[in-house]
Amino acid sequence: MSTVIQPSLAYVLTAPRTTHDHDVPVVFDSPHSGTRYPTDFHHIVDPLMLRSAEDTHVDALFAAAPDLGATLIAANFPRSYIDANRSLLDIDAALLDTAWPGPINASRKTEKGIGLVWRLLDTGEAIYDRKLSVAEVQARIANCYAPYHKAVRDAINGAHKHYGAVWHVNCHSMPATSSVISEEGPGIQRADFVLGDRDGTSCSPAFTTFIAVVLKEMGYNVKINDPYKGVELVRAYSDPLENKHSIQIEINRRLYMSEQTREPNDNFSKLQQDITRLIEEIAAYAHDNMPGHQHHHDCGHDHHHHDHSHHDHSGHGHPHGTGHKHDH
């Protein structure tokens, strides 16, 4: 096992394990599953409510990636402290006690209070009873955001340099129902999985379709770019024309945990097994689609022999499109 915990403690990077027969140019990253709350956070909101911002356990769901030849990167810091899936320009001026010294290009997320540094929870509660200093935000960028982004960028670029292609999967979970700040309005039931490729701009359409088919064959309902399209981590490092493919995966939290207690539910291990099978399929897809390796049927992989008998998710809601699009 090659686990490297960086000195900054911003993230854990687990390299492909040497026990696997070959590495593949696949990078999984989980930017929102961090649960180490820094002592300088000084929030006023209830800690359990604050945890509602987490994509809790997503790193555990994808834990098999290194055993299957892929790299796995997971943030240690919580998303509510600083959000690694935002642009550095996504500064919330309303949260600061003095003017930000650099450029600002605030997004719709910032207007809703969930920019680079969150001011509000999804439910609308204020996280602080104070303004933050510029130095505080700069320290969060330097200690958490920048090391995390460097790890993801270096892993993607390293795989691309070595193999001539890379497939990057940005891993998230989503509330079972939309909240008061959601574009589609509150109370909308979400699909089992939502895939985001920024309307086909961050990866090849074939890769998006491939993942959707694998999940549907397991019995899950899947939506694409509705309501989540993907944000900074799939935007920043993707270039499909250069064979750099990035996709965001959102998993409905009701499939694996209690949103109230954050504890795994009885379905956790089954979902984890299904995610492991998905990782296997993605690794095989990447192996088959590397430059110079286009012979799909003699690579030793047995693809898409899915057993449907134990994948019954018929009890889950199948939400329908609302016409609204937003991201994570």
Describe this structure in words.
Mean pLDDT is 88; it is low at 1-7 and 295-327. The protein is globular and about 55 Å long. It is of the alpha/beta class. 45% of the residues are buried. It is 25% helix and 13% strand. The longest helix has 30 residues, at 134-163.
Secondary-structure class: alpha/beta
* Annotation field: number of helices: 7
Mean pLDDT metric: 88
Low-confidence stretches: 1-7, 295-327
Topology, number of strands:
8
Classify the beta-strand content into a percent band: 5-15%
Cα-based radius of gyration, to the nearest Å: 19 Å
Sheet with the most strands, sense and barrel status: 8 strands, mixed
Spatial order of the strands forming the largest sheet:
1-2-4-3-5-8-6-7
Note the gap between the termini: 32 Å
Shape: globular
Helix content: 25-40%
Order of helices and strands: EEEHHEHHEEHEHEH
Which terms summarize this structure?
328 residues; alpha/beta; 8-stranded mixed beta sheet; 25% helix; 13% strand; globular; disordered N terminus; disordered C terminus
Explain the layout of strands and helices.
Elements: E1 3-5, E2 11-14, E3 26-30, H1 47-50, H2 58-61, E4 71-75, H3 108-111, H4 134-163, E5 166-174, E6 193-196, H5 205-217, E7 222-224, H6 232-236, E8 244-252, H7 268-289
Parallel strand pairs: 3-4, 3-5, 5-8, 6-7
Antiparallel strand pairs: 1-2, 2-4, 6-8
Helix pairs in contact: 5-7
Summed up:
With 328 residues, the protein is an alpha/beta fold. It has helices at 47-50, 58-61, 108-111, 134-163, 205-217, 232-236, 268-289, and strands at residues 3-5, 11-14, 26-30, 71-75, 166-174, 193-196, 222-224, 244-252.
